[in-house]
Specification:
- There is one protein chain.
- Strand 12 and strand 13 form a beta hairpin.
- By secondary structure, this protein is of the alpha+beta class.
- It is built from twelve helices and 13 strands.
- Helix 7 packs across helix 8.
Length: 385
């Protein structure tokens, strides 16, 4: 494009008169370089500012006098109201319109386990059926069990049983044994203990695992993000299939795992109540030093698109963070991609701690006053004589 645009403009100058050409006709010459330096266009175009100008123009009530004052007063009221809402309890307002990527879908069914309460997003697009093989079904069941709060006590019981049989085991052997044998052990333990099943029948449904037939979706809106599969996003100008999750490694950057969403699957469990769960089937990049590196000065994370993660652990839940991968403009690093983290729309990080003021902390008054005991109410100075 950078080489063809000047040639095309020269050919147009041979056809049209000079009065036809102004600065706008010569502007495409600079567009390829700006695209390389600036990146994605949605972070540089003027549409958001034009929409905002149109919005503040509608706040003018008196168009004959003091137009700027009406805009200033309306803008101040909006900013003060938005700032004050962060100090109040969240309240559902029916008059408010639901923003993009905030649409929710909940069935009128009481969910009994917290792991099944993540259906706060909304699927979109054409749905299709997907049959899972034994390896994929076991990986999905293991991911759900390891991320369920009610199953943590059974994992500790399983680890204690392994140590009682085989003695002291290191963490790598225990983790491998949990991945291989824990789902089978958990299903047998729940099936044999009828008392436990009577107390919490949901554990029995959870132990049997999901159905082999799952629903395949191309789009999923959750947590202010719009996740797309890689096949659905091919040929589009937007990129919404990159994900990042926190691993077990130490450090903030070394424990990050980066990948792309290959499929969005909706699983269902065998039970009387509706128990569904959305999981992302991802392809991960190699997290080792040969597949991921961090720039020493700028702390830019880079991944090699040709190296994949060797371990089969494709499923993640909705807690992933969305990222996108930007290629290098030069040919020296054609195999590497730069990781760019995105922020969800309409989400403000309002986590803060209330600190006690210095004056309040220092000026503590002891309300307890010690008095001497009164033995006699008669004043000796008056009645002494």
């Amino acid at each position: 494009m950078e080489q063809n645009i000047p040639i095309i403009i020269c050919k147009l100058e041979c056809i049209f008169p000079p009065a036809f050409f102004d600065s706008m006709e010569h502007l495409p010459v600079h567009l390829p370089l700006e695209a390389k330096l600036g990146g994605l266009v949605q972070y540089r175009w003027m549409y958001p500012f034009e929409r905002f100008i149109n919005k503040i123009k509608k706040t003018v009530k008196n168009k004959k006098k003091n137009v700027e004052g009406c805009i200033s007063e309306a803008y101040l009221v909006q900013e003060i109201t938005y700032f004050s809402t962060h100090y109040f309890v969240p309240l559902a307002q029916y008059a408010s319109t639901i923003g993009l990527n905030k649409r929710t879908h909940q069935d009128h069914v009481i969910q009994t386990l917290p792991i099944f309460e993540n259906l706060h997003g909304e699927t979109s697009g054409k749905c299709s059926d997907r049959w899972l093989n034994d390896k994929e079904l076991a990986a999905a069941q293991l991911h759900v069990l390891l991320n369920c709060i009610e199953v943590k006590q059974f994992i500790e019981m399983y680890v204690q049983s392994l140590k009682s049989i085989y003695g002291d085991l290191n963490d790598n052997v225990i983790d491998t044994q949990i991945e291989v044998d824990f789902p089978r052990w958990f299903q047998e333990y729940v099936t044999k203990n009828h008392k436990l099943t009577m107390q919490n029948p949901n554990l029995y449904d959870l132990a049997r695992g999901p159905l082999r037939l799952a629903k395949l979706w191309p789009i999923y809106h959750v947590n202010g993000y719009q996740f797309n599969t890689t096949s659905w996003g091919e040929g589009k100008i937007t990129y919404n299939s990159g994900v990042c999750v926190k691993g077990i490694g130490q450090g903030e950057t070394s424990s990050d795992y980066y990948g792309v969403v290959s499929e969005i699957l909706e699983f269902e469990w065998r039970s009387q109540a509706t128990r569904k769960l959305i999981l992302f089937y991802c392809d991960w990049f190699d997290p080792s030093s040969r597949g991921m590196r961090i720039h020493n000065q700028y702390k830019i994370v880079e991944v090699r698109k040709g190296r994949k993660y060797g371990k089969f652990d494709p499923f993640i839940s909705k807690s992933a963070t969305q990222v996108y991968y930007s290629p290098y403009p030069g040919r020296q690093r054609v195999d590497w991609l730069v990781v760019m983290k995105t922020k969800p729309r309409g989400v403000v990080n309002d986590r803060h701690t209330l600190e006690v003021d210095f004056q309040v902390q220092e000026s503590e008054v002891n309300a307890t006053i010690e008095d001497d005991p009164i033995d006699n109410l008669q004043d000796d100075s008056v009645y002494g004589e």
